[in-house]
Automatic annotation (TrEMBL), chain B:
PROSITE patterns: PROKAR_LIPOPROTEIN (PS51257). One of its GO terms (cellular component) is outer membrane-bounded periplasmic space. It comes from the Bacteria. It comes from Jeotgalibacillus proteolyticus. Residues 24-43 have a biased composition (Acidic residues). This is Fe(3+) ABC transporter substrate-binding protein. GO terms for biological process: iron ion transport. Belongs to the bacterial solute-binding protein 1 family. Fe cation binds at residues 53, 240-241. The lineage of its organism: Bacteria, Bacillati, Bacillota, Bacilli, Bacillales. Gene3D superfamilies: Periplasmic binding protein-like II.
From TrEMBL, chain C:
It comes from Jeotgalibacillus proteolyticus. It is an enzyme of class 7 (translocase). The complex is composed of two ATP-binding proteins (OpuCA), two transmembrane proteins (OpuCB and OpuCD) and a solute-binding protein (OpuCC). It comes from the Bacteria. One of its GO terms (cellular component) is membrane. GO terms for molecular function: ABC-type ferric iron transporter activity; ABC-type quaternary ammonium compound transporting activity; ATP binding; ATP hydrolysis activity. Residues 3-237 form the ABC transporter domain. The lineage of its organism: Bacteria, Bacillati, Bacillota, Bacilli, Bacillales. This is Carnitine transport ATP-binding protein OpuCA.
Length: 546, 359, 238
């Protein structure tokens, strides 16, 4: 009876589209998980005994420390640039997001290249002053090194989200605390951190998911984690079932993290309540304090962007003649093409799901929202297998159709860019979705309701009202997805069509063969494009009407 | 505002069209080449899945196209993932040739019935028997050896004539080797299982772990640098990494490599561990003839020279001389095992390394 | 009866307790009804159920002889022809006053749109503000525009959700008499929700008080301007 009443509200294009999207996302994952229950894994006992304890230890150590440092650096920088004025603050505001432009595994190779025996530091010491140093002081290829790299190149997730929160929402509380005579440190620890808890948790969960997903850095640094173990059991031991069990364990950890995140965030409130939102007025710092603030920001910026960037330029110059060729223009076009199309479709799908899930407060709509995170939490290679299994099935199903069309290729979909773009959508939907969801949260439902009361149906309302109002979140989500696709490696590597190379696969081609200098040209183009995108991202957010 | 939106939509549609066009293009080229009315040269194509990724390989493919008119379409990837992809694609796969830099992987592909046997007089002549699969399902194209590099000031080469010497008490805290994650180490242990049996292989692995100068980290080049910096005195590494370092753009790397000398282990006993790059025709191939031509081309003297020279590998074709650098290291005795055994024992090798705590 | 609500029940999400419990109400054409009650008594929910933004778990709603909700029917909010003034007005910030008002006039020709918009702007006395954006208006002005916007498509029923809660006290008194005047001028049947008895007394023909999700008593108020007497309809409580 109740269902019958609710049905008309549900029967619309949004529900249908969302169902389709959810099925599309679930299929590849199910095709993997189904093995989990059907087959026995031959090496599972071996893994449990010899690998798993170490994995759990390593993975949790990396997660805890990276999380802790990323929170510390991210929030302290966010607080500095929102609450104070000091030299070059306007620059740091966006420059501190730049470390996101450098993929962690490239950063890892680069830092090792700087610090190791033939790196610039030791070479200079040795050749100019004949100083030979104790290697262990300069060795970055270990767990602390991995934590260092992850922290430096992922903290901007915490920084951006927290800064956006602080500069828009915290004015009243912080000013009150100032009036109550609290000093800066007390305000930071007793007001800023507690009130921005939601933002911090949101940012740090992105950081941790990226860490769990990383393969390149941890395998080069020799720190076994879940992703290296999944690869080793799957490919080295040729035991897909054990690999899936490991993936499932990893997924369990991810869901545990997400649930903890939900609990920590507590109930979300629509921020478009009546409270007037007022930006925080920064205090001008002078003298030593100003320079301390400046130095801290500059120090992080230097470690997280400037140093590796300069090293990459140096290597690019070193190998330019050997490497550079017109092929790179084509690589760049390919990269831009897939990133642009991929990111656009991610946003289209994200908007559809977000719109659906805010319209209907039901179990299904909530699950749909949760499903978006799936792709972000599973290692790329695992998704790749799932998705190609599904696409090959579809191709086989469509075989007759291809024949009547007179097409030769029987694997039409699974050997075209179509499969690659679909994989990007599954992988990065969460990024677009989070952004759009935050945007919808901010405007609430009232404008949509007002429009419907004026006689426009859901779809017309969406195009005439909702879409206009979440323009900024859509653009910023698009840019984040764009950067991520540009950097993406495992999916691109395995799912691309014949003769299709991107900047990321080119960089991998060299880096995988330990030719890190040769990899620099491709890497640096990625970094520069990402940096430009980040600048645009920052400008868009700054212009957002309060 | 409306304009920006429209502009964006337009750009998106254009981009999607280009994307479709891109992938559609391949279809059309394959159709065209199938009907062969475009040019006299057009002699079809060959689709290659390769785990090798050197710029020089591409130059060879171009040369092949030039000589035969056969277009080479390439997907580069990680070997294991390419095998997984072939397996999933099954008989519908468009791949004709599978090429990889590890005999173990070739064996696995064979095991999964992804390859087919083919007889070729050219290949029988160019490739020695021990580098051919018994059923002619795949052919080795280049070889590389896993050798011991050392610092002559600190190590007497007499001490490290065998892989097993690395496990002696003298070597405690002096051995550099990368992680068990790495296929080269997996193959090395797999070869020991094949030759000396599981027990001995495990003992050896345990001995290596006991003697490690530091926790395994980095790649083969990093092991060489570890000797130069004094962290360790001997390193297990592949020949061609040393070759690459000696010819690096970075003069510091050259300096490191110049300090080192190499030993080809087990010369008096079972021979030095070698592995190959090789290629086979996929069982799903729709261009078998072209595929065979392609592999034959790669085994030819002119191709072998380039193939091996630029990457400091040993050519499989005995008529071709190795590069000067390799020649300067002299001839050596190779492990005399069927390379398929590397693949068969790979799983056990990983387990053993896990069991002895080789990171 | 113009509006008939019978046995209406509703609960939010997974809560067991009904927010609206067996609610009955009948309204005559042209009447102004005020729903009065403490916060949390479910008065706003009644409005949302009436206009179709929430789906009742039980009960019937009929407007002008047409069934909006029962066990077999549910008319989507955009098809009900009901106007609503939201508590915080929900004027589209990316549109001018004129665009906001014309928003609901999609079936009109361009010329008719303009004419109708001018009519309602005239009605609320805001002609000169047509080109402004909502954030350039004061609270009282925004409210009048919101009213004009919901009146423009000539709805059969007008709902107002706490129309005075965002205004300061002085303005409130002035606006509420204005509001009554405008509504009476158009002759439209209206329901508004308020927690302030003074507001209700000033505007409504009839006041319904809600407690625990049901209408508990009704009162008829005779204001000075009133001409006709409301028909007596007992609203039962259960």
């Amino acid at each position: 009876m109740k269902l019958f009443r609710k049905l008309p509200g549900y029967l619309n294009i949004w529900t249908v589209l969302s169902m389709i999207i959810v099925i599309l996302i679930l299929l590849p994952n199910l095709s993997i998980l189904i093995n989990f229950f059907t087959e026995r894994a031959e090496n599972w006992e071996h893994i449990q005994e010899f690998i798993l304890p170490n994995l759990l230890k390593n993975t949790s150590l990396i997660l805890v420390f990276t999380g802790f440092f990323a929170i510390f650096i991210g929030t302290s920088l966010a607080w500095l640039v929102s609450a104070y004025d000091f030299p070059m603050k306007r620059f740091f505001k966006w420059a501190l997001i730049l470390p996101l432009a450098i993929p962690p595994y490239i950063a890892g190779y680069t830092y090792n290249g700087i610090l190791n025996y033939t790196g610039v530091i030791q070479t200079t010491l040795r050749n100019n002053w004949d100083i030979t140093v104790n290697q262990s002081y300069f060795n970055i290829l270990n767990m602390p090194g991995a934590i260092f790299i992850f922290t430096l190149f992922l903290f901007p997730y915490v920084y951006t989200i927290t800064r956006a929160f602080l500069s828009h929402q915290s004015a009243a509380l912080v000013e009150n605390a100032r009036l109550l005579g609290r000093n800066a440190w007390e305000i930071y620890f007793r007001v800023v951190i507690p009130i921005s808890r939601g933002a911090i948790v949101g940012g740090v969960s992105l950081v941790l998911l990226e860490v769990l997903n990383d393969y390149g850095l941890v395998s080069y640094f020799g720190v076994p984690t879940f992703s290296t173990a999944i690869f080793q059991t799957w490919f080295g031991m040729n035991d897909l079932n054990s690999a899936i069990k490991l993936s499932a364990t990893l997924m369990f950890i991810v869901f545990a993290l997400l649930i903890i995140e939900k609990l920590l965030r507590g109930r979300k409130k629509y921020s478009a309540t009546t409270a007037k939102v007022r930006p925080l007025t920064p205090i001008k710092l002078r003298g030593a304090k100003a320079w301390t603030a400046f130095s801290y920001c500059f120090f992080i910026f230097m470690l997280g962007f400037l140093i590796p960037f300069i090293q990459m330029i140096d290597w690019t110059i070193l190998t330019f003649e050997k490497i550079a060729s017109p092929v790179f223009t084509q690589l760049m076009m390919n990269s831009l093409l897939v990133s642009f199309v991929g990111a656009s479709l991610v946003m289209v799908f994200a908007v559809i799901i977000a719109n659906f899930s805010r319209m209907h407060q039901s179990f299904f709509s909530k699950s749909a929202a949760r499903v978006t995170i799936l792709g972000y939490s599973i290692p790329g290679a695992v998704i790749a297998v799932g998705i190609s299994t599904v696409f090959i099935d579809i191709d086989n199903f469509l075989f007759k159709f291809y024949e009547t069309m007179g097409m030769e290729a029987s694997l039409f979909l699974s050997t075209s860019l179509f499969i690659l773009i679909s994989a990007y959508i599954i992988r990065f939907l969460a990024i677009g979705y989070n952004s759009v969801e935050a945007g919808f949260d901010k405007i609430g439902n009232k404008y949509t309701e007002a429009s419907r009361m004026l006689g426009l149906n859901l779809t017309k309302t969406f195009f005439k009202v909702d879409l206009r109002m979440i323009k900024v979140p859509i653009i910023s989500g698009f840019i984040l997805a764009f950067i991520d696709i540009l950097k993406e490696l495992p999916l691109t590597l395995i799912l691309r069509p014949f003769n299709f190379d991107t900047l990321a696969t080119k960089a991998y081609q060299y880096a995988n063969d330990e030719q890190i200098q040769e990899a620099s040209l491709a890497s640096i183009i990625i970094v520069v494009i990402s940096a430009i995108a980040i600048y645009v991202f920052h400008q868009v957010l700054e212009k957002e009407p309060k | 505002m409306k304009n920006t939106w429209n502009l964006f939509c337009l750009a998106l549609i254009l981009a999607i069209l280009t994307a479709c066009g891109n992938s559609g293009e391949e279809e059309s080229t394959s159709n065209e080449s199938g009907s062969t009315d475009e040019s006299e040269e057009s002699a079809g194509e060959v689709n290659l899945y390769t785990g090798r990724h050197y710029d020089t390989d591409q130059a060879l493919y171009d040369q092949f196209t030039e000589e035969t008119g056969i277009k080479v379409n390439v997907i580069q990837g990680k070997d294991d993932e390419l095998i997984a992809r072939l397996e999933r694609e099954g008989q519908a796969s468009e791949a004709d040739v599978f090429m990889t830099a590890d005999a173990g992987r070739l064996h696995r592909a064979e095991d999964l019935e992804l390859l087919q046997s083919f007889e070729s007089d050219v290949l029988n002549e160019n490739i020695p028997e021990n580098l051919r699969e018994t059923d002619n399902q795949w052919y080795g194209l280049t070889k590389r050896a896993r050798i011991i590099a050392y610092h002559p000031d600190r190590v007497n080469p007499e001490e490290i004539q065998d892989y097993s010497d690395l496990t002696s008490e003298d070597m405690a805290g002096r051995v550099l080797i990368r992680s068990s994650d790495n296929i080269y180490n997996q193959s090395l242990v797999a070869s020991m299982i094949a030759i000396d049996g599981e027990e001995a292989a495990k003992e050896w692995a345990q001995g290596i772990v006991n003697n490690m100068a530091r926790d395994p980290e980095g790649g083969d080049r990093d092991q060489a640098k570890g000797i130069a910096s004094g962290e360790g005195d001997v390193a297990v590494m592949n020949t061609y990494y040393l070759g690459q370092m000696l010819n690096s753009e970075d003069e510091e790397e050259v300096k490191v490599a110049e300090q080192l000398e190499v030993v080809f282990p087990n010369q008096d006993t079972t021979g030095t561990h070698i592995n190959i790059s090789g290629a086979g025709i996929t069982s799903s191939s729709k261009n078998v003839e072209n595929a065979q031509k392609f592999i034959e081309f790669l085994s030819s003297e002119s191709a072998q020279e380039q193939f091996a020279e630029t990457n400091y590998e040993y050519p499989a074709n005995p008529n071709v001389e190795a590069s000067e650098l390799l020649q300067s290291w002299g001839e050596f005795k190779e492990q005399d095992i069927n390379l398929s055994e590397l693949g068969e024992n790979n799983n056990r090798a990983i387990q053993i390394m896990n069991e002895v705590g080789w990171k | 009866m113009f509006v008939q609500i019978k046995d209406l029940c509703f609960c939010y999400g997974n809560t067991k307790q009904n927010t609206i419990n067996q609610f009955h109400l009948e309204i005559q054409q042209g009447e102004i009804i005020s729903i009065q009650g403490d916060s949390g008594s479910g008065k706003s929910t009644v409005l949302r159920l009436l206009c179709g933004l929430e789906v009742p778990s039980k009960g019937t709603i009929t407007i002008d002889g047409e069934v909006m909700t029962d066990d077999r029917h549910f008319v989507l909010p955009e098809k009900r022809g009901i106007g609503m003034v939201f508590q915080d007005y929900a004027l589209f910030p990316h549109m001018t006053v004129l665009e906001n008002i014309q928003f609901g006039l999609k079936k009109y020709s361009r010329k008719a749109k303009k004419q109708r918009a001018e009519e309602v702007l005239e009605l609320v006395n805001m002609m000169s503000f047509a080109k402004r954006y909502p954030h350039e208006l004061s609270g009282g002005q925004q409210q009048r525009i919101a009213l004009a916007r919901s009146l423009a498509p000539k709805p059969s029923l007008l709902l107002l959700d706490e129309p005075f809660s965002n205004l300061d006290a002085g303005l409130q008194i002035k606006i509420r008499s204005e509001l009554r005047e405008i509504i009476k001028k158009t002759g439209i049947t209206s329901i508004f929700v308020s927690h302030d008895l003074e507001d209700s007394k000033a505007i409504a023909d009839r006041i319904v008080t809600m407690r625990d999700g049901a209408a508990h008593n009704w009162e008829s108020i005779c204001t000075t301007t009133r001409k006709e007497k409301p028909a007596l309809h007992l609203v039962e409580s259960k």
